Amino acid sequence: MSGCGTAPLPGLPEAVTICEVGPRDGLQNEPRPVDTGVKAEFIERLADAGHRVIEATSMVHPKWVPQLADAEEVLRRVDRRPGVRYPVLVPNERGLRRALDLGVSDIAVFASATESFAQANLNRTVAASLDMFAPVIGLAREAGLTVRGYLSMCWGDPWEGAVPTAQVVDVATRLISLGCTELSLGDTIGVATPGRVGALLGALTAAGVPIDRIAVHFHDTYGQGLANTLVALQHGVTTVDTSAGGLGGCPYARSATGNLATEDLLWQLEGLGVRTGVDLTKLVQTSVWLAGHLSRESPSAVVRALGEPQEG
Amino acid sequence: MSGCGTAPLPGLPEAVTICEVGPRDGLQNEPRPVDTGVKAEFIERLADAGHRVIEATSMVHPKWVPQLADAEEVLRRVDRRPGVRYPVLVPNERGLRRALDLGVSDIAVFASATESFAQANLNRTVAASLDMFAPVIGLAREAGLTVRGYLSMCWGDPWEGAVPTAQVVDVATRLISLGCTELSLGDTIGVATPGRVGALLGALTAAGVPIDRIAVHFHDTYGQGLANTLVALQHGVTTVDTSAGGLGGCPYARSATGNLATEDLLWQLEGLGVRTGVDLTKLVQTSVWLAGHLSRESPSAVVRALGEPQEG
């Protein structure tokens, strides 16, 4: 496209690492069970497309997340490749032991910035949940693992409304103190707008959290995911969580609350000349293939625009 | 939300004028005819919600756009209010005469940045279409009207691919020379990304087009509408075209190619503290009401998240 100029945006990085959360965060919200073989093939296809960080599954008890009851079998089937990280969510020490037995080298814990969601999701206070995570993070780090700390409800909470920045900074810095190697700031109900993204990132770096340890995890509930991501990148963030095809969120709910689609982000980053190492065409093919297995269309705008329906 | 900070983004304006294009650009793409009474009530509701620029209809021949064959009756039924502009699209001198007879004070003409789309949409070359518009614009300005010049395919064209910046600047400056009081830059197939938006705006201002005469008109085909708008605002643009509920584009096509939804933009601008004068709640109610008449859901994320289904 000679003569079709693009102007550099201030502060944009040259490259972005995408943390692909589809196999865990996406599939755990599917109403119908997905075959273990399909899950493993999904992960292989994501690696084929160029992903280097693929959140593979969760060691949460099947009573709570029956969709991922086959976590161990999925990990056994995937041919884990050198240079690709396959983080696994672990809720507690028991989950960590299971992960270590399977040779996992990257884990994630899932914390909340608000008391209401800590109670609803973890059945304990924020402080008690951090006490629960402390030995998990410590043991994992001793074993040489990376530990991603998810921090949910960073901008808004369905019970508490807008979440004060200082409260998020407090929980975030405690997760870093416990040994998390990365923080993923979640806009779990999708209410953030670009100015509030900038405010929280500024407060976190002012509190001493290095920007290169911060990832962002936006939901597209109000259509703000890409604009929020753009502002985060301009603030120095270089790791973004997305899911192939916008997987996640309940397709049967009137309000889609799913993850930002990896393809929509790739379209933007390719246009901006920011490298990701991920092949958009292969990823769209993967999302169309998976949509066939889920018997529904992807909510991603780019997948709908570029994808050809395939046999499931 | 005390303590829930928002950081100012560089270059953002304090206020934005939304040009609501739902009644014309939206409804002209509806596969089924919409009652004249519904159209008039839609426009009244948009004014009630606080809109001050509402593109009301089009004087295009009913053979080409049967959906707007009742243009004159719609204009007669709407109680046009002081302080609200109701631009009407006019294709030629005949259309202008009809508009003037109806007391219209704001018109728009629809040009193309590419030869392929000029042929497909206007059945003539770019130069010939400008020759056709020249007397329309001249007569309208003599009559004291404002004239908006739509410039479509500013970033990409389905036949020609990416459109060279110089080509867009050439047609844009000719429209301004002919007397257009405002230019609306259309990303008709939705392929723009933020860097290309900035490049075109920079080239236009370098060519002498004042930024306060430029509006942007993004489609959400690849999910980029809001991020592109944000960058345009940071470049000094203060007029943005959107449609209530994301009206426009064919709901039956696999790839939605509709307008950016006004509600999604309002959510972002409210979060950023940028004034629009439009009430989000009233607008969502309007979009839900209209969706009932169209027998389908709005594609807007914000409408789906906030709207309660109503009787049609």
From TrEMBL, chains A, B:
InterPro entries in the cross-refs: Aldolase_TIM, HMGL, PYR_CT
| Origin organism lineage | Bacteria, Bacillati, Actinomycetota, Actinomycetes, Kitasatosporales
Every copy of the Pyruvate carboxyltransferase domain together lies at: 16-284
Give the species this sequence originates from.
Answer: Streptomyces armeniacus
**Per its UniProt record, what Gene3D superfamilies does this chain match?**
Aldolase class I
CDD domains named in the record: DRE_TIM_HMGL
> What's this protein's family per the entry?
Belongs to the HMG-CoA lyase family.
Q: What is this protein called?
A: Hydroxymethylglutaryl-CoA lyase
GO BP terms, alphabetized: ketone body biosynthetic process; L-leucine catabolic process
